[in-house]
Design brief:
elongated, Beta-Lactamase, five-stranded antiparallel β-sheet, three-stranded antiparallel β-sheet, Enolase-like, domain 1, about 350 residues, alpha+beta, Arc Repressor Mutant, subunit A
Length: about 350
């Protein structure tokens, strides 16, 4: 949960700031000095609490909606909280086992499993669930077919050991006799099945150059554009839950606010956002304007990484900045473990 550095605070100021953030996360209403004194066990007077809160506001950690109202955390206040909380809350063991068993019995097809995982993640966290795949290149080709279509078009079908099947139509306008199509298909089966996509990218020319059909126009197209054809489509790189779960959050019960957010929940949009802003090999939380996207200024995205050996990626949630960060991080880590054990 790394992020931007925040300035050092005194122990008292840090204690009060953390209390404000936790109370606001729990209630969704501005937090007053009287409330902190009464419910948070702070051993200082309300006047002292007010003075410290005023100082925190001047430093940019807190803000307020109304002059006489309580305080709410800013992005900087949430960042301090996320960087400071010492431990994540552990999940109930029986609850965790129930989640794992339900997902593991769904399917050994990675596409179905990850789609179900995103929905289950939303159900458990009460946030918008996201599974982002950063690399499928370790997955192994288990079958390949070349099929003639009407209009002299050709369809390439790839089957992977993860259960994914990719099909793409090549608009090459090639009239290929069935006997040659069969020969080319068999050569590709013989030379490429059992290889990872990464191996195919690096060695396809060497694997095919001594075959009798290597100079054929179709073979040359697939060899020269192998990065285009031997890859997983972008729509298989991100899995999301239903966004209806966000309507349960007070921040999004104003439909105008929710409608402004909707474009950012589109799969293609999120896929690009994850590629641009999330490192492949670290857990990362982006809060508000740290997302560098005005559509997500009022949101936080929390992630943790997974690597099953076949695929790598991130499991994450998107929600209001008032995410219960500690418990949600525990949920994310559990789901990352489930993905790794299932694949």
């Amino acid at each position: 949960m790394s992020g931007n550095k925040t300035s050092r605070l005194t122990e008292r100021a840090a204690t009060i700031l953390l209390a404000v953030v936790e109370e606001y996360i729990a209630s969704g209403t501005p937090v007053s000095s009287v409330h902190l004194k009464k419910y948070c066990g702070l051993k200082v007077s309300p006047a002292t609490i007010r003075n410290v809160m005023a100082s925190l506001e001047q430093k940019g950690y807190l803000t307020h909606f109304h002059t006489s109202g309580g305080r709410v955390p800013t992005d900087l206040g949430y960042r301090f909280y996320v960087n400071t909380i010492p431990e994540f809350r552990s999940l109930n063991d029986s609850f965790s086992e129930g989640i794992e068993q339900e997902l593991l019995t769904i399917s050994n097809n990675v596409d179905e499993l990850l789609n179900a995982t995103a929905f289950m993640l939303a159900k458990v966290s009460r946030m918008f669930g996201v599974i982002f795949i950063s690399e499928y290149q370790k997955s192994i080709l288990t079958d390949i077919e070349l099929v003639s279509l009407k209009g002299n078009r050709i369809m390439l079908v790839l089957a992977m050991d993860t259960g994914l099947v990719k099909s793409i139509v090549l608009n090459l306008d090639l009239d290929i006799k069935p006997v040659f199509m069969d020969k080319i298909t068999q050569i590709f089966k013989d030379r490429l099945v059992g290889c990872t996509l990464k191996e195919i990218h690096k060695t396809i020319k060497v694997r095919l150059i001594d075959t009798e059909m290597y100079s054929h126009e179709l073979v040359q197209v697939l060899v020269n554009d192998c990065l285009k054809y031997f890859r997983i489509d972008n729509n298989k790189l991100i899995y999301t839950s239903s966004y209806d779960v966000l309507l349960e959050q007070p921040e999004f019960q104003d439909l105008a606010n929710f409608q402004r957010l909707l474009p950012a929940l589109d799969k293609a949009y999120l896929n690009q956002h994850f590629k641009d802003n999330f490192n492949d090999y670290s857990d990362l939380t982006l809060i508000g304007k740290e997302n560098k996207d005005k559509l997500l200024n009022d949101c936080s995205i929390m992630t943790t990484q997974f690597d099953s050996g076949l695929i790598t990626g991130k499991v994450g949630v998107l929600g209001p900045k008032r995410i219960p960060y500690g418990s949600v991080q525990s949920i994310l880590e559990k789901f990352a473990e489930i993905i790794q054990s299932a694949l």
